[in-house]
Design a protein that fits this description.
Low-confidence stretches: none
Helix content: 40-55%
Largest sheet: 2 strands, antiparallel
Number of strands: 2
Number of helices: 2
Structural class: alpha+beta
């Protein structure tokens, strides 16, 4: 099975994301509830289950990795744009 990819395109850049080799899980770094909520006693009631050891299960875990990569990249872009405007 081929790994998924995603391409972000804007007027000034194009970036392609690939989950890469390695361990992938369904526990995304950027898709959980915030640390502020957790520290206040909140609970992540939508926490994902572990992926199955099947082709679709592995795809699900790779998509979570891909989503994390995209979220980190876009957050960095927003941060750099905000600091340039200040």
């Amino acid at each position: 099975m081929t790994s998924p990819t995603a391409t972000y395109t804007s007027p000034d850049t194009t970036k392609t994301f690939h989950p890469g080799n390695g361990t992938h899980t369904t526990y995304g770094q950027t898709t959980q509830i915030s640390d502020i909520v957790l520290n206040a006693g909140g609970e992540d009631r939508d926490k994902p289950s572990e992926h199955n050891d099947t082709p679709l299960g592995h795809l699900r875990a790779e998509l979570t990795t891909l989503q994390d990569q995209i979220n980190v990249y876009l957050t960095e872009r927003m941060s750099s744009t905000t600091s340039q405007q200040s």
